[in-house]
Amino acid sequence: MRMFVRLVFGLFVLRAAVASPRFSRQVDLDTYDSAHYDVDLDNINLENQDTYDYEDGLTIDDPQIEIGTLAPPDYNYPEKEVEEEEEEEEEEELPLKPQLVPQGSGGSGVLMGPDTQKGMPTCLLCTCLGGSVYCDDLKLDSVPPLPKDTTHFYARYNRITKINKSDFASMNKLKRIDLTANEIKSIDEKAFLGLPNLEELVIRENHVSQLPALPETMTLIDASHNNIGTKGIHSEAFKDMTALLYLYLTDNHIDYIPVPLPDSLRSLHLQRNNIQMMHEDTFCNLKDFNYIRNALEDIRLDGNPINLSRTPQAYVCLPRIPIGDLI
């Protein structure tokens, strides 16, 4: 009888498992035992077996954990990609606004600076960095038109033969001009007078015979290794240059010291010229023996046919004796 009851219970459990969609595993009937159910088999009234309602007497609790695989969440990646594509399209639609280099003297004011005589923009032919324009070693035969904001101009080691007044016209910001090692023979007398901020002029290693007039703002003048002679410097050319610090006239044909020299001068280089004599008041003030010229510490007269020992009173106001022959 017990065997029969167990069989009935097993069939009931099997039917419940098959009917429920929540269970996917097959039930092993042999594993069920009477201990799994709260039923006293000995006290079952078999006589009332026909009227016993198994479905009302026995219930199987629904499982607490649902067995299965959860679908991954939807992260909406396509929306982010669409936003990035829209941003890229907006960036592509932005118009380009190139900054034009200001128009220079005699130029057209196009991008990359005014055009040269060869039809090439100056800043494409040369190198423009900020306010500095570098045109070194380009076989130029003339000064190219410069942007108006140029502050420093370098055209060294070229073939420039002449400086015209129009080359630097209206260049109000120009501070330094360096034309070292060209073939310059002549410079227009007013080529540099229209430059209110010019401070440094370097024209060494050329063929200049006449030093042009220069603005009073000069701090450095280097005209060494040229052909400047007795009449190549204007009378009192440096008198009003109250900011002049360095005057280099080495390797020319000068036969005198170009006085008067401003008190601001620190360095005077006149070596290898044709200076034969010096006046006692060249550097000092004979009327004021208390006058001391502290700034002028570097005077080079070596390589000249002058005997410095003949004019000892000319150096009493200087912090150092000039360099040159004393015999």
TrEMBL record:
PROSITE patterns: LRR
Compartments where found: Secreted, Extracellular space, Extracellular matrix
Positions of the LRRNT domain: 122-152
Chief place where the protein resides: secreted
GO cellular component, one term: extracellular matrix
Keywords, in A-Z order: Disulfide bond, Extracellular matrix, Glycoprotein, Leucine-rich repeat, Repeat, Secreted, Signal
Superkingdom to which the source organism belongs: Eukaryota
Pfam families named in the record: LRR_1 (PF00560), LRR_8 (PF13855)
Family: Belongs to the small leucine-rich proteoglycan (SLRP) family. SLRP class III subfamily.
Protein name stated in the entry: LRRNT domain-containing protein
Organism: Amphiprion ocellaris
